[in-house]
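Dear colleagues,

I hope this message finds you well. In preparation for our joint manuscript, I am sending the BAR/IMD domain-containing adapter protein 2 (Cyprinus carpio) sequence together with its predicted structure, so that both groups work from identical material. I would be grateful if you could confirm receipt.
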Amino acid sequence: MVLTEDFTMSRTDEVHRITENVYKNIMEQFNPCLRNFIAMGKNYEKALSSVTFAAKGYFDALVRMGELASESQGSKDLGDVLFQMAEVHRQIQMQLEEMLKCFHNELLSELEKKVELDARYLTAALKKYQVEHKSKGESLEKCQGELKKLRRKSQGSKNPAKYGEKELQYVETISSKQSELDSFIAEGYKTALSEERRRYCFLVDRQCAVAKNSSAYHGKGKDLLTQKIPVWQQACSDPNKLPDRAMLLAQQMSSGSGTLLSSPLHSSKGNLVISDPIPGAQPLPVPPELAAFMGHQGRLMGPDGMSLVNGTTGVHGDDYWSEGGVSQGRPPSPQNQTQTQSQPQRQVSDVYSNTLPVRRPQPAKNKTTVGETRTLPRSSSMAAGLEKNGRSRVQAIFSHAAGDNSTLLSFTEGDIITLLVPEARDGWHYGENEKNKMRGWFPFSYTRVLPDSDSEKLRVNLHHGKSSSTGNLLEREDMSLPMPDYGLTARLLAQSLTQTRPRPYSMAGFAQPALEDYDSQFATR
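The corresponding structure tokens are as follows:
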């Protein structure tokens, strides 16, 4: 009997200690770890939000690249592919944002609320269990104490039988209270384990909700990408494949001149794009502002048939760059200044475009009085008018270096270039240097058109291994200037100039002088 009671008491006390430890572990270990988990979750959420923000900028840039490709001549289909990529990743990003919302609302917010309430609840639950356990234990101990007293009395009494019935009642009461205490401890133990398990189950359940949204995010991304990736790879599998429209343009140009390759011509240092021609289109009509130029072709030619620089204007051409005043002759070099001032008439100055590198002035000579002219900054319209006369050869008046760009043509001053395409495009022409038989694009304003008479003369000179420089041609006795009145006002000419596209910079890497530099070189009085 005593052994049984001792074994029962030891087991009851052990379970009681386990129950208390379960509550303490929840409060002292689980809840602090849960708070740390919530803090790490917030850091993770913040990092994903930053990734989402960065992803938006990344795919906005991808859309911009698609826009550029869509505006290109040979990669319009790749522009559509880039748009599709941006759209697919936008949908994936939207799914990621939904996952982030679920992560915040379904996990972090719920856990944060639970952990705040749980601290007070567990403290109260443990205290209640301990109070009831103490009450039941004290009641049991009291009955056990009364039983011991009764047994001592019965042992010292002359009539112990009278204490037998009362002792039996105490034994039954003690047994009942012991059973009640054991049941209470068992229930408290199960309650404590249930409280512990409920908390872990809630954590796992919230993680399952997040995982479900994560699965939807990854599943949608997989479906979209699995469907689109083969199409995208097919679009970029052959970099040498060109659009049908570009191939048609190349074939038309190749059949028209017999010299242009079918590959697209473009510069790595500039956006030199050939406009798509309209089949069967006629040359552009001469603008009204240039009708006077075309009507006075004799005025643009010297007495010996030499033409002026491509796209030069009369005295009104300077109105485009300066606010007022007529363009004056460029001041002579310092060594010739005295001689120039003593002469009532001026020499013929070097004629060149404001957009070209500065050319060294020739020594002043006493020639027929002429006025210096300037080239139009945008010479496409004039070039188109000159090409209508059937001229196919030009002479370089400035040197041009292609550098490391294989699509450009290098030449030196005085070289003869045969034009291989019918019209200039945005101030650039395509031709073959007769000196080294190289072909490529070159700035048309660096050259002057040769009429048939000059072409024959220069062909003979080249045959003998000589070429005339532009400076010598300009110094000839019979060189005459265009008539000062072209029938155009500065306003009409400026209006026609604003309707043309600016000439691209040379790919040779020439420094483009500022407007103030040109003003200092072309002083007005």
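For the figure legend, we might mention the following. The chain has two domains: 2-235, 288-521. The first strand starts at residue 393 and ends at 396.

With kind regards,
E.M.
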